[in-house]
Specification:
Elements (H helix, E strand, L loop, with lengths): L4 E2 L5 E10 L4 E10 L5 E5 L4 E6 L5 E7 L5 E7 L7 E6 L3 H4 L1
Antiparallel strand pairs: 1-2, 2-3, 3-4, 5-6, 6-7, 7-8
């Protein structure tokens, strides 16, 4: 699990959780959001290629990177509380590890 990053308000934290499936020998990942004053948590996206989530300024909006099949990296913005659909805001020709 990646270290959680708190939102500006301190009410939410975002982190990336990875799980290894022994039968399929695959790694599954998910960007997750935790409500700090309760036991509630949820997935912001279940795309296993999503990584490096960060908060956008003082909002509850997240930006993260998604590795694409062609080797490019997509920048995605989404609402941490799932009030709106996430959307791609750009693509670069670097692998996601070098774009963060």
């Amino acid at each position: 699990m990646q270290s959680p990053y708190p939102s500006a308000s301190g009410n939410l934290a975002v982190y990336t959780q990875r799980t290894y499936a022994f039968r399929s020998r695959s790694v599954f990942g998910q960007i997750r959001v935790r409500e700090m004053n309760s036991p509630r948590f949820w997935g912001a996206t279940d795309n296993p290629r999503a990584n490096y989530p960060r908060w956008l300024k003082d909002s509850e909006q997240l930006i993260w990177l998604e590795a694409m099949d062609n080797g490019y990296t997509r920048f995605v913005i989404g609402d941490a509380c799932l009030h709106s659909v996430h959307y791609a805001v750009g693509t670069v020709s670097d692998p996601s590890r070098t774009s963060k």
